[in-house]
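Regression test case RT-17, inverse folding.

Input:
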C-alpha cells in the first residue's frame, strides 16, 4: 500500500505520543516491502532457520522503542527509517546466529552511518529465477543460478545495488536516491542502464533467456 509521506509522519507522531494503533497502521502499510527486503538480505546460510516474519516481529518492537528518537529528528523519510531499523535488527540476527562466521565487512554497505547487509549475487539470482518445484526444474534452476551469479558478479557493485533497491525492494526512485546519496536523475539513469546491461550480459549466455 502506498501513502503520502505526510500521512506516514503523522502516524509516527501519533505513535510516539502513545497511540499504538497508529504504529500498527504504519507498520501494516509497509510490512510487505520490509518483508521483501528481509528476504533479499537474509544471509543464505540462515534461510530455513530464520523466518522473515520473526525478523519483522523483532524489528517492530525495535521501532516502538525508538519512536521518541525518530520523532525528535525526522532525519529520514518514515519508510526509510523503518527500513533502517529493520536492517539493523537483521544485522543483529546475523551476528546472533553466525557469530565469527558472518560475511566479512567488505560485503556490507554503509547506510545512514551504520552497516546493513548487502544483497549478494546469489540472493539476487534466486529472486530473478523465482521458484522451481519439480526435480527437473530444480536441476535447471541450479544450473541457471550459477550462470546468473556469474553475470551479476561481472556488473558494477553500484548497478547491482540499484537493481536490488529498485527492482527487488520496490524502493521508489527518490527513496533509492536517499539511500545511495545520489540524485534522483542519477539513480534513474543508472537503473535503466543496469537493466539494459543485465539483459545484454544474459544474451551472451546461450539459451539463457529462452529457458528462464
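Golden output:
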Amino acid at each position: 500500500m502506498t501513502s503520502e509521506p505526510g500521512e506516514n509522519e503523522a502516524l509516527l507522531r501519533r505513535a510516539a505520543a502513545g497511540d499504538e494503533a497508529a504504529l500498527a497502521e504504519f507498520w501494516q502499510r509497509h510490512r510487505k516491502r520490509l518483508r521483501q527486503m528481509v528476504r533479499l538480505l537474509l544471509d543464505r546460510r540462515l534461510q530455513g532457520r530464520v523466518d522473515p516474519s520473526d525478523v519483522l516481529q523483532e524489528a517492530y518492537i525495535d521501532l516502538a522503542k525508538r519512536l521518541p528518537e525518530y520523532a525528535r529528528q525526522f532525519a529520514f523519510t518514515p519508510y526509510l527509517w523503518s527500513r533502517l531499523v529493520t536492517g539493523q535488527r537483521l544485522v543483529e540476527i546475523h551476528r546472533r546466529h553466525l557469530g565469527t562466521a558472518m560475511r566479512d565487512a567488505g560485503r556490507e554497505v554503509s547506510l545512514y552511518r551504520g552497516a546493513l547487509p548487502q544483497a549478494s549475487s546469489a540472493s539476487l539470482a534466486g529472486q530473478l529465477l523465482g521458484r522451481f518445484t519439480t526435480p527437473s526444474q530444480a536441476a535447471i534452476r541450479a544450473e541457471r543460478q550459477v550462470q546468473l551469479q556469474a553475470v551479476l558478479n561481472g556488473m558494477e557493485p553500484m548497478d547491482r545495488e540499484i537493481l536490488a533497491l529498485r527492482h527487488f525492494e520496490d524502493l521508489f526512485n527518490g527513496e533509492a536516491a536517499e539511500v545511495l546519496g545520489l540524485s534522483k536523475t542519477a539513480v534513474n539513469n543508472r537503473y535503466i542502464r543496469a537493466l539494459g546491461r543485465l539483459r545484454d550480459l544474459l544474451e551472451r549466455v546461450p539459451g539463457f533467456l529462452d529457458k528462464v
